Amino acid sequence: PDEAAAEAPEEAAAEAVDAMIEATEAADEAAAAHESSSASGTGEEGAVTGADVPGPAKIKAALMNEDPRMVHYTDFVSPEEVQHILQLCENRWERSTVSAGKASELLSSGYKEGNGTEAVGETRTSTSVHLTFDESYVVERIAARVATVCDCSLEHVEPLVALRYEPGQFFKLHHDGAMRPSTVFVYLTGLEPDAGGETHFPKLGFQVQAVAGTAVMWHNRLPDGAADPRLSHEALPVLKGVKYGMNCFVNIQSQRDTSNIVLVHHKEDGTADK
Questions:
Q1: Terminal CA-CA length for the chain
Q2: Judging by beta carbons within 10 Å of its beta carbon (0-12, 13-18, 19+), is residue 127 exposed, middle or buried?
Q3: H/E stretch holding 172
């Protein structure tokens, strides 16, 4: 990001250690999980792909904002993973939707599953692709990183959503909802500093520039479970070029059974914790 990027303090450096997931071992864990399911890779049509796509060697973290806590990650995804994700998205792009419903329900601590419906709206003009966990090891590995940096169980990570913003497209001011304790937004590709497309947090007074391979993590809820209004944000219009990103949400509701997947966290000294 521009003015929002500060030097990483000791706590952010420690978080960077916790956030490191070696791509090959994470892929092996995902492979084992998929082999035990009906979606195991067989080399046939519909098989899981991406097992040979390398991930980042190391993820670096820098604290952007202390309260509310926001962390910026460098090398959250590798260039090869970005290329793979965009290949998965070919011929699948559809108009992005918004959650339509009463703000008092979507943003309150009393959120109930099923509040709101997804619909196309004029406040959001991008296109999206909803990715499934069983179509690519890369998708599974990125979800594992999201769970790690958000300090949550993998089962609460929603299916990842790739986004495309072409010139003139935007997403006006919105909040990700009280049903989502945390958000990780991944910038798959970057834009030039004068090309627009920044993620603007008006109540915090800064914006984040799209830089390829980076990500930003924030927590959406106040201690009482209601939505933190300070995290309202907008995707400013792209002025030139195309911005590709990815929404990675953590939900209060379990999204799937992940009991057969083990996450491997690697430290600076090369040792691993499970």
A1: 32
A2: middle
A3: strand 171-174
Q: 77: buried, middle or exposed (CB in 10 Å: 19+, 13-18, 0-12)? A: buried
DSSP H or E stretch at residue 87: helix 79-89
Residue 41 and residue 134: Cα distance in Å, rounded? Answer: 9
Of 81, 91, 58, 73, nearest to 188 by C-alpha is: 81
> Which token pair is 73?
């990650």
Give the containing element (helix H, strand E) for 145. helix 137-150
pLDDT tens for 188-244 read: 999 999 999 999 999 999 999 999 999 999 999 999 999 999 999 999 999 999 999
Structure tokens at 74: 């460098």
Model confidence, pTM: 0.83
Query: Could you give the C-alpha distances from 122 to 8, 35, 100, 136, 253, in angstroms and in order?
Result: 38, 42, 12, 32, 28
Q: Which residue has the tokens 């670096």?
A: 60
Token pair listed for 39: 């979606």
Strands 98-100 and 117-119: antiparallel
CB 162 within 8 A of CB 129: yes
Residues 6+ apart with CB under 8 A from 129: 88, 89, 92, 93, 94, 161, 162
Helix, strand, coil percent values for the chain (each to nearest 5): 20, 25, 50
Residue found under tokens 């046939």: 44
CB 111 within 8 A of CB 105: yes
Q: Enumerate helices (H) and strands (E) in the chain, giving the number of each.
A: 5, 16
Q: Is the peptide bond before 68 cis (omega within 30 degrees of 0)?
A: yes
